[in-house]
Amino acid sequence: MSKRASAKYKIDRRMGENIWGRPKSPVNRRQYGPGQHGQRRKGKVSDFGVQLRAKQKLKGYYGDVTEKQFRKIYEEAARRRGDTSENLIGLLESRLDAVVYRSKFVATVFAARQFVNHGHVNVNGRRTNIQSYVCKPGDVIEIRPKSKQLAIVLEASQLAERDVPDYLDVDHQKMVATYTRVPGLHDVPYPVQMEPNLVVEFYSR
C-alpha cells in the first residue's frame, strides 16, 4: 500500500469516521481506532480534545496538510473580515488541489495534490504546480491536453459517490472547471460534520 493511501486510511480509523465518504474506507467495517488498544479508547474527552479532534479532522480531510500550512491558513482567515470559521472553509476550498478534487478530475484529495504537483493542471491558461495556489472567483482550471486521457482522470469523472458542488461550473467533456464563488460551510458537500468553529477555538486559546 502506498504511503499516501495508508495515511488516508489511518486518518479515517483515528477519527472513527469515513471522512471522505469512500466505499473502501476501513471504518465501514471497523468503527474504532487503529492499534492494539483501539477498541478501548472511549474515555471522556476534554474541551481541548474535542477542539483538537475537529482540527485534525479538517486538516486531514484536505490531504493531511502540514500543521505549519494549516495554521497559516487559519491566520489568514482570522485576518479577513467576517466570520473566521466561514473564512477558513472558503480558503481551504479555494486551494487548487481542493478545486481539482471537487471538480471530479481525480478520485481523492491525495491524488489531487499529487496531480497538481506533477504539473497536469493549467489555471487561466498557465501551468500551475502549486497545490496551495489560491483560486479566485472567475478562475478557469483546466487539465492540460496531454493529461486529459489519463486513466485516473477518466475514471474519476464517472464516480457516482459524490457530486460537483454548485460553486464550480465543470465541463467533463473538455475537462475544464470555472471557480464561480467562494463557498461557505453549508455549501461544501462534506460526507461528515465539520466544525470549523471548534478549530477557531483551538487556535484562539
TrEMBL record:
Q: Which CDD domains match?
A: S4
Q: Can you tell me which family this protein belongs to? A: Belongs to the universal ribosomal protein uS4 family.
- Give any Gene Ontology cellular component: small ribosomal subunit
State any single GO MF term. Answer: structural constituent of ribosome
> How is this protein named in the record?
Small ribosomal subunit protein uS4
Segment Disordered: which positions? 18-46
GO BP terms, alphabetized: ribosomal small subunit biogenesis; translation
